[in-house]
Automatic annotation (TrEMBL):
Keywords: Aminoacyl-tRNA synthetase, ATP-binding, Cytoplasm, Ligase, Nucleotide-binding, Protein biosynthesis, RNA-binding. It comes from the Bacteria. The lineage of its organism: Bacteria, Pseudomonadati, Pseudomonadota, Alphaproteobacteria, Acetobacterales. This is Tyrosine--tRNA ligase. The gene is tyrS. One of its GO terms (cellular component) is cytosol. Homodimer.
Amino acid sequence: MPKSAFLRDAQARGFIFQCTDLDALDEAMLAGPITAYIGFDPTADSLHVGNALSIMALRMLQRHGHRPIALMGGGTARIGDPSFRDEARALMSPEKLAHNLNGIEGSLRQFLHFDEQDNGAILANNADWLDKLSYIDLLQDVGVHFSVSRMLSFDSVKQRLDREQGLTFLEFNYSILQSYDFRELNRRHDVRLQMGGSDQWGNIVAGIDLVRRTDGKQVFGLTTPLVTTASGAKMGKSAKGATWLSAERLPVFEYWQFWRNTEDADVGRFLKLFTELPVEECERLGVLQGADINEAKKILATEATAICHGRPAAEAAAEAARQTFEQGALAGELPRRDITAQLLDEGTPAFRILVEAGLATSNGEARRLIRGGGARLNDIVITDENQSVTHADLRDGVAKLSSGKKHHVLIQPA
């Protein structure tokens, strides 16, 4: 069992998958605060739940007195990380890249404190140094320390090549540039630890080796596990797409609802990973059964949402859910969908309104939903798929439309 507070907490909560030298890192953390970083490539204008474990690792690091650095990949995004991907990422325009960087900064600021305190988080962008590199200088300075045969042995590269999907020379350079990032952050900010998901192990080890070879320093790597649900689904993915951390991309109520819909078997584990409740309380809640586990899910949803969006917004979402599911009320915090006013002027079949509201992906799916008794308008079951929905169905300018027990929206004319 580690002796330093961060590693002890990280191990108890299930954050540690691999570490290059756990005992030496433990000693370094016992000796005093260290600085660690995680990189985030701006592939969208918001981070999502799939990134949440990495962000929570930085947040935990900061809570235990160490300094976190969130490195935005403004430079590496122009290449794209090939790790465990089936194909190369599409290259972004400078305007799109700037837009995404701004959005990701907002996501990170929801979780970390970027103030002037001793361990205030640092927001860095690797474009600050990668954009200035001379190719020949990079080859002479860094390229000589990389073995192509070793790079080909990385699981992330081998899987791509084994599937005969090809790997461009552009992508092949990603590991070199990420290693360069580690060395640069070590020189600029004395960064001694890089963390990341388990898919980054090869890149992290390469960076550690580069720092040792060129600067003679010992630095460390730690990866978090790949998080999947008990049923095997990838964390943060759904039929509707990614579960975004930005309220502009995903309403707070829907973010709360994502956690509320956690599978029973995942509640205790997710409480440890995505909330800051004591480990003992997470374990107690995680073994509840029957109706009690539903109460544990509400606690998970509220605590996880409070970290991302603030306590008031989380409690408002919880109250909206209570009103919606327990009282059948029209809750103002439900996501809203604009419906063309003309559709309500003329009266539109219920199945088509379900599609317009995003509760069904096709007319056929909507018809089947209605036939199965799973569609409701203002909490009343829709029995006729051709039932006309008009302005008369609005209450205070909105109508509540439901698909099953868990998916609800307010439709409003636009």
